[in-house]
Write a structure and sequence with these properties.
heterodimer, A: Aconitase, domain 4, 7 strands, B: 465 residues, alpha/beta, Aconitase, domain 3, 3 domains, 5-stranded parallel β-sheet, binds iron/sulfur cluster
Amino acid sequence: MAYDKFNILNSTVVPLPTENVDTDQIIPARFLKATERKGFGESLFMDWRYDSEGNPKSDFVLNDPTYSGKILVAGKNFGSGSSREHAAWAIYDYGFRCVVSSFFADIFKNNALNVGILPVTVSPEFLEEIFTEVEKDPSTKVEVNIEKQTITLLSTGSFESFDINTYKKGNMQNGFDDIDYLLNMKDEIVAFEAAKKI
Amino acid sequence: MEKKTLFDKVWDAHVVKSVPDGPDVFFIDKHFIHEVTSPVAFLNLEKRGNKVLFPERTVATPDHNVPTIDQEKTIKDQLSRMQVEKLRENCSKHGIELHDLGTDHHGIVHVIGPELGITQPGMTIVCGDSHTSTHGAFGAIAFGIGTSEVEMVFASQCIMQSKPKRMRITVDGELNEGVTSKDIILYIISKISASGGTGYFLEYAGSAIQSLSMEARMTICNMSIEMGARGGLIAPDETTFEYLKGKEHAPKGEDWDKAVAYWKTLKTDEGAEFDLEYKYDAADIEPMITYGTNPGMGIKIKDNIPSTDGMEGSNKKTYIKSLDYMGFAPGEPIKGKKIDYVFVGSCTNGRIEDIRAVAEFVKGKKKAENITAWIVPGSREVEKLAIKEGLVDILEEAGFKLRQPGCSACLAMNDDKIPAGKYAVSTSNRNFEGRQGPGARTLLASPLTVAAVAITGEVTDPREV
Ligand code: SF4
């Protein structure tokens, strides 16, 4: 088992209404020097979180005690840029299990699912509604239900369905990953390779 | 017969199995690895008690984190040194071909793959680096993957991928003077936006694309990811075959003829359908530069930075935040902005053609006083050619110095960092906040534009020098 499974997540959220949050902001390149996966949560959003002297910037949401939770809600086109899985690790290790946005970059989405973070794509209107509600009341909770594939804003009761394919859904619910699957079909792969010309 | 796109032909030939309502089990022909995104994959592989299934299908080089001076000495930075040492250790343990620092074919992974002829038409290629899309220039499906997927390729030579949608971008007509392939791709991204390609795999087509050299095609495919696309490819043709012929890993003799016969079938069938198409006229493209903090924020050098008219909500907020970071105001001209650094290098524009273009441009001129210039070849091969062709002498006379190959200031993991607040015009591919060092301000442009900026010390249209 590669990560903690989950079915229903019921949590307050951390709002980050910035658009095009790229992987270099999620985790700057200078933190990619590790040879093992350790301590990435501390470097999450490093340059937005701390000034050059290492003091927390009070205007950044992760430094604002008003907001906490296992769900990060971000502006459109989240996770663009590099393929560094470290970005997903940092988010997971910080304590998030779900990122909600109206649009995700492809590689990030794959990486997120591979490490056990659920990326939930909602409509721009629903995203705005979450931001508005959370701004009004930071204790607002959101429920993400993988089985039903729904995300619900508990204060208003409004909800949306989200897409996830049956295969990935099963993985998330069971905490399995692709490697388990691939290793099970090694013979088929070896035969495929043998038949290849290139 | 069913009409297929080039992308479909290559993709379908590599599906081992389709999972119902899930991804495809997708076979990978070639896997490139480097020191930054591989160590955790090796570690997890071993933790699970697995081996590299086909070690001969993986090729390694240290590039992201290496110094560009004194490469022959021990790396000073302890963490960087550990990553490079880990790569050596893992390669020798698992029997993987390594092009180490100081050896003949060391360089940026996306530069050496094509140089060695490892990259070939019809292949599937992955690497734990998003600019793997570069190899699409040869008619290969090439894209970046995360570390979990690197581990999957080690263990099974496959990854689980859902097939992306197809987009074709056609550029027809003749290019204006002073316009390079970098300008073409910056122009396209400025039209499609930094996220407009998400969910798609691109094919670049049209007479303007076909007229380009392999180097120039690589520059275009390299930046496919900057539109959010997984990758982009170009149908192989005589230019491609000519480039590959005789390369170390390219097929030889009878195998070569067989390969070329197959490669010639790798094109989109007449009438095959794309999910989305864009068409551009080469005559509309002029030298481009970026002014903001994503590669979609590009304009013609002669144009003004867009004003905020018509923007609202988080869109406007994000735009203003970006310009604030750059120290620019909406509506003002970009031309004439004072610049502190120029960087020629990276897997976008660190090939020999790029160094040639810069050398030719600065020949007999001197760089401006206020400019610090870094020229970093993409590989040892490029470095060797630059010396052999006398380009290094020309560059040195103009006040530039050639460093040793690596990613360098493209992502500033080593010491090559642009200081906070300073402006750099760069041939690389990303202008994100802090990409070239914390607080650094990056403007992306072609090697020609960068050369022009180096001479005048400010943002300049290369046609006006
Ligand atoms: S040169 Fe830049 S973009 Fe290319 S592989 Fe290196 S870091 Fe990535």
